[in-house]
Design goal:
Layout (H helix, E strand, L loop, with lengths): L6 H13 L6 H14 L3 E5 L2 H10 L8 E5 L5 H8 L3 E5 L10 H5 L6 E7 L8 H11 L2 E5 L7 E2 L2 E2 L6 E5 L12 E5 L2 H10 L8 H6 L19 H32 L5 E3 L6 E2 L5 E5 L7 H10 L5 E2 L19 H9 E4 L7 H14 L1
Parallel strand pairs: 2-3, 2-4, 4-5, 5-8
Antiparallel strand pairs: 1-9, 6-7, 6-11, 8-9, 10-12, 12-14, 13-14
């Protein structure tokens, strides 16, 4: 991945520096409003990362030790870590082979009376079935937190992936389609929830720093609860506002490049590329390919040969339950998760990649087949 950053972003960041307001301020407020409108949410609350956004989303639920939160193991480890931050227990569920996402069936297989919440991930930008999972969570009486780290620009049932989410957390890391360098956002529809999230990200203060500085009179703030320093800077938000204006074009370009990959890969047996699910469209934040058993070269050997030929591919999505940090967890069987993490790789896809680059990459894969 190469982030699409240009002169407009550089100028926006410089303007923020010259303004003298570089901490959380008016640009953050504007970015929150415009991002929420773009993803179909009532309110946006900018934070320092998607991980801190997930943490705050779980803080809202007042979870207790022993409470269980179902998560996919097939996700960046931050998804599971956020559950431990609040003292709850992550329970790993398997995923669908085609999308890499949780389903009602995989969640039901590990749900218990102690299940208080689910974190469902729009994996690699592929939207999960929002209608099915939201209805199931409501029927079960558990909260659904949406990890939309990769999903800016993806759609589900004809709407932006975040539309209708009770709470969703987003990432603006450089590997994402929309980046602010680091940073994230929490989107919600409920206004009171947004007020509390803003308080939680700023040490629990009942008056924001921006509002204090705008006042012509001294403001004596109060700290209403133990909270955190999870703020975004105005410099980051300035970049984010430019990136937001590029989002539709970036997603369109990525989908064109993905279509070219599909065309080039179509004649190679044993390679299954990620595609749109029936219920939506992906932004192709990651273009992963699953290697079937009939492909004569193993995944690690494929990665090694691509690297030898100057191609920067990566292993597929990690499985948290296989990492040392979760060695103390004995999950239910996760055969699909383990197959995807063992047998998949992510191919380069970014705005600078050329048709010749894609032909070279697929040509190497064809040789290895």
């Amino acid at each position: 991945m190469i982030p699409m950053l240009g002169e407009e972003e550089a100028q926006a960041a410089a303007d923020a520096v010259r303004s003298g307001w570089v901490a959380q301020g008016p640009r953050v407020a504007r970015f929150e409003k415009e991002f929420a409108a773009t993803v179909g949410a009532g309110h946006g609350v900018a934070v320092s990362s998607c991980t801190t956004g997930l943490h705050l989303a779980l803080v809202l639920l007042s979870l207790d030790p022993g409470d269980e939160v179902i998560v996919p193991s097939l996700s960046f480890i931050a998804t599971a870590n956020a559950v431990r931050y609040v003292g709850a227990t992550p329970v790993f569920a398997d995923v669908d082979l085609a999308t890499g996402n949780l389903t009602v069936e995989t969640i039901e297989a590990v749900r218990t009376p102690r299940t208080r919440a689910i974190i469902a991930v729009h994996q690699g930008g592929v939207p999960f079935d929002t209608v099915a999972l939201r209805k199931a969570a409501e029927d079960w009486g558990v909260a659904l937190v949406e990890d939309a780290a990769c999903a800016a620009g993806s759609t589900a049932y004809g709407q932006p992936a975040g539309t209708g989410a009770a709470v969703a957390a987003w990432s603006f890391h450089p590997r994402k389609v929309l980046t602010t360098g680091e940073g994230g956002m929490v989107t919600v529809d409920d206004a009171e929830t947004a007020v509390r999230l803003r308080r939680l990200r700023e040490h629990g203060m009942n008056v924001s720093a921006a509002d204090r500085h705008k006042s012509s009179q001294p403001v004596l703030e109060a700290y209403l609860e133990t909270a955190y320093n999870y703020r975004m800077t105005d410099i980051q938000a300035a970049v984010g506002l430019v990136q937001l204006g590029r989002l539709a074009g970036l997603v369109s370009q990525r989908r064109e490049l993905a279509a070219r990959y599909h065309e080039l890969l179509s004649g190679i047996d044993g390679l299954v590329p990620v595609r749109d699910p029936a219920h939506g469209t992906t932004n192709y934040q990651s273009f992963w390919v699953l290697i079937d058993p009939e492909f004569r070269t193993g995944r690690d050997e494929v990665l090694a040969e691509l690297a030898r030929r100057g191609v920067s591919a990566r292993r597929g999505i990690m499985a948290a339950h296989l990492e040392p940090a979760y060695a103390d967890v004995t999950p239910a069987p996760l055969p699909v998760t383990e197959r995807i993490t063992r047998d998949s790789l992510i191919l380069p896809l970014h705005h600078k990649i050329t048709d010749d680059d894609q032909k070279l990459i697929v040509g190497i894969l064809r040789e290895l087949a």
